[in-house]
Structures are given as C-alpha cells and as structure tokens.
C-alpha cells in the first residue's frame, strides 16, 4: 500500500472515533464535541494531503480513487445522521444526502454489472454538493462549539445552508442519474 492510500486508510480509521465522540457530545458544547472537532479537522486536513501525495508522487490508484471519496461520504453521513438525531439538522436533509449517495452507488454497480465504464467522474454539481455538505458539517460543529447554534441569527443562516445543500445534492443526483442512464443505454 502506497503512502497516499495509507493516509486515506488512516482517515477511514478515524471516522468511528469521530462518531463516538460526536454521539457522546450530544452535539452540545463540551469536551466530547471539541475532541470530535479535532478528529474531524484531522480527517479534513489529511484529505487534502492524501490527494496531493497521490498526484505529486504519481501514486493514484483504483483503491485510493475508491476509498478517498468513500471516506469523505462516511464522515459527512456520520455527521448528518448524528446531527439529525440531536435535532441540529433536519432529517429530510440527511435522508436526501444519504439516499442520493446510495443511489449513485447502486447506479455504479449497475454500470459495472452491465460491463460499462463504471468510473463515476465528479462533476460541477457533485463537487458543489460535496463542498456545501462539508461546509454545513463544519459550520454546525463550530456553531454548536461556540454556543451560537441556538441563537436567532443562526436560524436564518442554517436554513440557507440547508436549502443550498439540498438544492446542490438534488442537482448532483439528477446530473449523475442522467449520465449513468446514458451509459446504460449505450451498453444495450
């Protein structure tokens, strides 16, 4: 396993610890939340480095190309599910994000089974959705950490964040569905 893949694997290894600390924090400002913020920040910084190392050292692999976005999805899913459980993010947004990702995964599996090119290349909508989802997690963690989340000014801010994340997630889901259905129709 090359250096970039080891770094990605270490990020994946940290996700369960992040979940444990986030869950025990009850998404309230306390020591557990701050430990989860440190773990999340570590995973995020390592995400930048594993991609850089892979490109710089010419260590881009199929395994890394699969594990890197999977780890990103895992930490966002864990965050949103925990936030929804503790009423910090609406359940509908969590269901939308997780469902879209699962449907894309099922679509990729269908492409593979029909022996199509099953490489799902990120596009503008997918990257935009990922950035907004990640930003929502960061903003929620820090808003809770500094006790801003429950303030009236935070309410409007988070409704805008939820709406933008929902729009981009929906747009990316439609975009990938169109791309995958075209590939499947070419396979027939």
What is the total tally of β strands?
A: 0
CATH topology-level fold name: Four Helix Bundle (Hemerythrin (Met), subunit A)
CATH superfamily: CDP-alcohol phosphotransferase transmembrane (TM) domain
How many alpha or pi helices?
Answer: 6
| Overall SS class | mainly alpha
Query: Helical amount among residues, as a percent range?
Result: over 70%
CATH class: Mainly Alpha
Word description of this protein:
By secondary structure, the chain is mostly helical. The protein has one domain: CDP-alcohol phosphotransferase transmembrane (TM) domain (Four Helix Bundle (Hemerythrin (Met), subunit A)). The chain is built from 6 helices and no strands. Helix 4 packs parallel to helix 6.
Topology, element by element:
Blueprint: H1 3-25, H2 31-56, H3 62-85, H4 91-113, H5 124-145, H6 152-187
Helix pairs in contact: 1-2, 1-3, 2-3, 3-4, 3-5, 4-6, 5-6
Structure summarized in a few sentences:
The chain has six helices and no strands.
Characteristic key phrases:
single chain; 188 residues; mainly alpha; Four Helix Bundle (Hemerythrin (Met), subunit A); 82% helix; globular
């Amino acid at each position: 396993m090359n250096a970039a893949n080891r770094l990605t694997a270490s990020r994946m290894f940290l996700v369960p610890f992040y979940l444990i600390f986030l869950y025990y924090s009850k998404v309230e400002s306390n020591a557990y939340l701050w430990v989860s913020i440190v773990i999340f920040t570590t995973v995020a910084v390592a995400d930048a480095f594993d991609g850089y190392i892979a490109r710089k050292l010419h260590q881009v692999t199929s395994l890394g190309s699969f594990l890197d976005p999977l780890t990103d999805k895992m930490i966002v899913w864990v965050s949103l599910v925990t936030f929804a459980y503790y009423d910090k993010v609406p359940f509908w947004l969590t269901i939308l994000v997780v469902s879209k990702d699962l449907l894309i995964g099922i679509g990729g599996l269908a492409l593979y089974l029909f022996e199509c090119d099953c490489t799902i290349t990120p596009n503008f909508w997918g990257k935009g959705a990922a950035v907004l989802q990640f930003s929502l997690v960061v903003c929620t963690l820090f808003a809770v950490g500094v006790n801003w989340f429950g303030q009236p000014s935070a309410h409007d801010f988070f409704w805008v964040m939820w709406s933008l994340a929902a729009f981009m997630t929906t747009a990316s889901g439609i975009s990938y569905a169109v791309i995958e259905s075209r590939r499947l129709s070419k396979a027939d």
